[in-house]
């Protein structure tokens, strides 16, 4: 091993907050590998089963870490630190990643770094160029969270608005379930929306004060609309699937964008970013880009592989924490919320 390599900051990062087991290697802020193992077993249940997720993480974590190390050309003894997702997430899934990370860090006598899952989604913007300038606004949308966050520094933020009920990703999946689409349904809604008319069916927008969101009313309106139409024509969903997907996606995105525009106007910030699993949605990505052109925003959207749950985002967050010397003790424990 060369002297230069010994001075490198090499971190193994582990993500296990839900149903994806992921590992990534980062050297001096540059991602060397990013491996994800998904769990197909949940499809038959129409949602993630926590107990099954935890068991699958136990099976996947060693081979996933091995592949990440191999792809990066790095050995365990070259590592400078071990990072892991501390929360929020499914507590059983988090425990697997946390326990593995603590044991490995202790055996190698290297620091341990705990990462907040939602912070990591935002910091995914610093993996590749172009990178946003502080302060910037980030619309963070996932299956469990929907927030407008003002980022003042890497680990200094303020939540300006959040959902008061369903998260955007949850709303997409519930709408897909109503349409009898496979799980996870969000990507199917996005796929079929490209083939439909987004204004074929109109659904009411919620009137929520300030910068908060609400998706339950849209979802309920969509459900009642379909129940009524199905009584009149049992084949309605099948016949109008593309237009239904386009219309409900348009409604969700319109709600998301309205509050983001308000946040930009109120703060005067034109550095605007998108993060979280729902940032992989092509309709939302296009909406932010179009709004950015109209309002002279500088917009930032991570590559698709860094949108959904992955360990590269944990790795980049860990890199900045390592530079600050912010480490965990072996007594640290994960948190669900």
3D structure, described in words:
With 337 residues, the protein is of the alpha/beta class. It has 2 domains: 137 residues, Nucleotidyltransferase, domain 5 (2-Layer Sandwich), CATH 3.30.420; 172 residues, ATPase, nucleotide binding domain (Nucleotidyltransferase, domain 5). The protein is 44% helix and 19% strand. A 5-stranded mixed sheet has the order 3-2-1-4-5, with helices on both faces. Strands 8-7-6-9-10 form a 5-stranded mixed sheet. The chain starts with a helix and ends in a 13-residue tail after the last helix. The N terminus is likely disordered.
List keywords for this structure.
single chain, alpha/beta, Nucleotidyltransferase, domain 5, five-stranded mixed β-sheet, 10 helices
General shape: globular
Strand order of the largest sheet: 3-2-1-4-5
Low-confidence stretches: 1-6
**What can be said about the biggest beta sheet?**
5 strands, mixed
CATH fold description of the largest domain: Nucleotidyltransferase, domain 5
Q: What is the CATH C-level name of the largest domain?
A: Alpha Beta
Question: What is the count of DSSP helices, taking H or I runs of 4+ residues?
Answer: 10
Distance between the termini: 42 Å
Quickly give the structural class. alpha/beta
Number of strands: 10
Q: What is the CATH architecture term of the largest domain?
A: 2-Layer Sandwich
Helix % is 40-55%
Estimated radius of gyration = 21 Å
């Amino acid at each position: 091993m060369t002297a230069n390599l010994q001075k490198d900051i090499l971190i193994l990062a582990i993500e296990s907050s839900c149903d994806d087991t992921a590992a990534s290697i980062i050297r001096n802020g540059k991602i060397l590998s990013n491996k994800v193992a998904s769990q197909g077993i949940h499809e038959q249940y129409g949602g993630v089963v926590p107990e099954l997720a935890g068991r699958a993480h136990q099976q996947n974590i060693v081979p996933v870490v091995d592949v990440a190390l191999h792809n990066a050309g790095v050995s365990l003894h070259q590592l400078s630190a071990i990072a892991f997702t501390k929360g929020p997430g499914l507590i059983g899934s988090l425990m697997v990643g946390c326990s593995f990370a603590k044991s490995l860090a202790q055996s190698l006598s290297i620091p341990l770094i705990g990462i907040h899952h939602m912070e990591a989604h935002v910091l995914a913007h610093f993996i590749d160029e172009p990178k946003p300038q502080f302060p910037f606004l980030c619309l963070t949308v996932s299956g469990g969270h929907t927030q407008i966050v003002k980022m003042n520094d890497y680990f200094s933020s303020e939540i300006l608005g959040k959902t008061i009920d369903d998260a955007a990703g949850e709303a997409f999946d519930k709408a897909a379930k109503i349409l009898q689409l496979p799980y996870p349904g969000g990507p199917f809604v996005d796929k079929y929306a490209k083939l439909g008319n987004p204004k074929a069916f109109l659904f009411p927008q919620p009137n929520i004060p300030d910068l908060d969101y609400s998706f339950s009313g849209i979802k309920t309106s969509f459900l009642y609309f379909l129940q009524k139409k199905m009584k009149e024509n049992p084949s309605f969903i099948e016949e109008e699937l593309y237009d239904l997907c386009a219309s409900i996606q348009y409604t969700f995105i319109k709600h998301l964008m309205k509050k983001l525009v308000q946040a930009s106007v109120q703060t005067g910030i034109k550095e605007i970013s998108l993060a979280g699993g729902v940032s992989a949605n092509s309709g939302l990505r296009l909406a932010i880009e179009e709004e950015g052109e109209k309002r002279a925003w500088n917009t930032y959207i991570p590559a698709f592989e860094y949108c959904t749950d992955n360990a590269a985002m944990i790795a980049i967050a860990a890199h900045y924490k390592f530079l600050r010397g912010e480490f965990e003790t072996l007594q640290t424990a994960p948190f669900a919320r």
